[in-house]
Amino acid sequence: MIIGIGVDIVSVERMEHWWNNKKLLERYFHEDELKKVRRLRSGSVLSLAARFAAKEAFGKALGTGMRKLVLKDIQVVNSYNGKPSIKLHGSALRALRAHKGSSVHLSLTHERESAVAMVIIEGD
Fold first, then answer.
1. Residue 49 belongs to a domain with what CATH number?
2. d(Cα 115, Cα 52) in Å, to the nearest integer?
3. Among the ranges 20-24, 40-44, 64-68, 108-112, which has the highest mean pLDDT value?
4. Of 7, 81, 92, 93, which has the maximum CB count within 10 A?
5. Number of structural domains found in the chain
6. Distance from C-alpha of 109 to C-alpha of 26, rounded to nearest angstrom
7. Contacts of 92 (CB under 8 A, 6+ apart)
């Protein structure tokens, strides 16, 4: 059963402004996300924007917004073939469990100017 659906769009320009602010990036992104994004030869800011959109979309899918969520507890990971998914830690995992969620589905897309994420949360 679907518990919630969330969609978010992020301006790539916004992430370009964040790119050189280490404290801001470490506040919002899991350390493994930052390592992965920094290793990219191109598209690092696009990837960052998509990951941030995923965090916001997760909060919307919960129906709570970002209240009581630590953004870096919502980690976007990729499978061996690049498929994105969400790995939850701490506050985000507790929120998913509190809402009786059992699985999270993620889709990402981006263009030069914006990145979009869609999250679907399923439960029993």
1. 3.90.470.20
2. 9
3. 108-112
4. 92
5. 1
6. 23
7. 58, 69, 70, 73, 74
